[in-house]
Amino acid sequence: MSISAKAGPYKRRGSQGQVVTSDNDIIKALPWDLILPVAKSLDLNPHLIASFIMVESGGNPWRTRYEKGWKYFYFAEDFAKDLGISLETELNMQAMSWGYLQIMGAVARECSFDDHLTKLVDPKINITVGCAKIADLAEIFDNDDDIAAAYNGGNGAPHNKLADGRYKNASVQNHVMKIQKARKSLDAYRF
Questions:
Q1: What's the pLDDT tens digit per position in 42-94?
Q2: pLDDT exceeds cutoff 90 at 141
Q3: How many whole angstroms separate alpha carbon 96 and alpha carbon 143?
Q4: I need a surface site. Which of 17, 37, 55, 62 has the fewest CB within 10 A?
Q5: Residue 153 lies in a domain
Q6: Which residue has the higher pLDDT, 122 or 13?
């Protein structure tokens, strides 16, 4: 097994396990069979969902990330008891982002996901729950940039803008710019 300096220590892989090296490779490898029906059922633009996947996970359905310092938990004691797991396990899992859309465990709980959070790496579950969150944000915010800002930085992020329209939080602004770039690649791609 060789390791590519370009791809980092691990090669990016698509939904079928193929190595992907460019935006076009990622676009082709996305799980369109899952994205299209869920986006349609929630009246979301599938290119917006795909751009989130490209930015959030690089198209890797197994990506997880622990958010050190996470402090927004959702009925953790109740879920731990109902699922027969320790409170510490539930807290740690709520503080992780999961799968294609890197949905936070606590956010999944807010979206009525009541099963074991490890199931959020299942592509169908991940896209369904993540799109539910995006649909909720689309009810609040009327443009894709604000939806992306809220998905990344919380519902308050779109309200914190500089006079020139950029978001005050540099991390949120950077995230929105990445979503815009991915969306541009998707809109230019010929299926």
A1: 999 999 999 999 999 999 999 999 999 999 999 999 999 999 999 999 999 99
A2: yes
A3: 27
A4: 17
A5: yes
A6: 122
Note whether residue 4 is domain-resident: no
> How many domains in the chain?
1
Q: In angstroms, rounded to a whole number, what is the distance separating the alpha carbons of residues 55 and 9? A: 18
In a domain, 136, yes or no: yes
Q: For residue 25, give Cα distances in angstroms to 14, 30, 54, 123.
A: 8, 9, 11, 18
Global pTM value? 0.86
HSE-up (13 A, CA, CB side) for residue 136? 15
Instruction: Say which residue the tokens 């791809």 belong to.
Output: 7
The beta-strand segments (E) located in 50-184 are 64-66, 96-98, 103-104
Confidence of residue 190 (pLDDT cuts 50, 70, 90): low
Cα 77 to Cα 23: distance, rounded to the nearest angstrom: 41
Q: What range does the domain containing 47 cover?
A: 23-188
**Biggest CA pair distance of the chain:** 50
In a domain, 14, yes or no: no
